[in-house]
Amino acid sequence: MTEVRFVAIGDSFTEGVGDELPDGRVRGWADIAAQGWADALDRPVSYANLAIRGKLIWPIVEQQLEPALALRPTHLAFNGGGNDILRPRADVEHIADAFSRVLRRCDQEGVTLILLSGANPSGQLPMGKVFQRRGDLLSDTVIRRIADRPDVVRALNWPDTELSKPPYWSEDRLHMNAAGHHRVAARVLHALGLEPDASWWAPYEVGPAGSSGFAYYREFVAPWVKRRVTGTSSGDGRIAKYATWTEIPPRSGAQGAGDRHPGSPA
Fold first, then answer.
1. For residue 13, what is the enclosing H or E element?
2. Per-residue pLDDT tens for 148-181?
3. Residues 6+ apart with CB under 8 A from 207
4. Does residue 137 lie within any of the structural domains?
5. 57: which of 27, 98, 101, 239 fits an S-S bond (Cβ 3.0–4.6 Å)?
6. What is the CATH number of the domain that holds 39?
7. Domain coverage including residue 107
């Protein structure tokens, strides 16, 4: 029986921002998928997550890819580019080159690539139409690059119109809430040939609508603009939450890939 060693790299999407636990830690789709994977197999899964919020795609590749491969994983999940297409001079082909680099290195190391596209928040964002166009272009460009690679595990969230609806998003409208992260985790497990609990696909709670109008800009947009002006990042000074292997045991009594409220690794 082959051991599963699952590592994830990326930005806030993969770190789990928006899916905060009561103790302040973030969970997110990768944590949830790791637990669901262990439950589905009924045996432990080794899990690591090197993602750091705020990262552009090439720093993700340059800073996280080789440390992730040095762990000798069986599967590597990769997503990035969301922070890049928020910038005014985003070069989609250059962003897509990062995906090609990750695939080439996974091929060289004999690692199965789990390729994700991020969820689409553009309907809720200021200048959302611009973000939509860039996201559509990036999604199409990356898909073309892997068109002849059926061995790449695809968990494509950008085209998911259900996931773009407000019940799946946190108050900042840019990061998914727990329901959104569960839906992404369900898609990952489904792409791996596993079947999560049906409840993972739908929002199981709807929180408050959050700030609107000037209050929204003051609370969420202004800090983002300030970071751009000052050249800082929300990830500055942060370290990976699981930089080395954490064993995720299956939960006793879990059905299929688990219930809809899995916890984070200990």
1. helix 12-15
2. 999 999 999 999 999 999 999 988 888 999 999 9
3. 170, 171, 177
4. yes
5. 98
6. 3.40.50.1110
7. 5-211
Partners of 246 in the beta sheet? 47
Higher pLDDT, 243 or 123: 243
Report the alpha-carbon distance of residue 177 to residue 175 in Å, rounded: 7
Q: Where are the alpha helices (DSSP H) in 71-217?
A: 92-109, 128-145, 178-191, 213-216
Beta bridge partners of 169: 176
pTM for the full predicted model? 0.87
> Residue 263 domain-assigned?
no
Q: Mind listing the pLDDT tens digit for each residue in 1-51? A: 689 999 999 999 999 999 999 999 999 999 999 999 999 999 999 999 999
What separation in angstroms does the CA of 10 have from each of 49, 57, 168, 176? 9, 8, 20, 15
Determine the straight-line distance between the first and last CA of the chain, rounded to whole angstroms.
25
Return the closest-CA partner of residue 11 out of 56, 71, 48, 70.
Answer: 56
Q: Is 228 a domain residue?
A: no
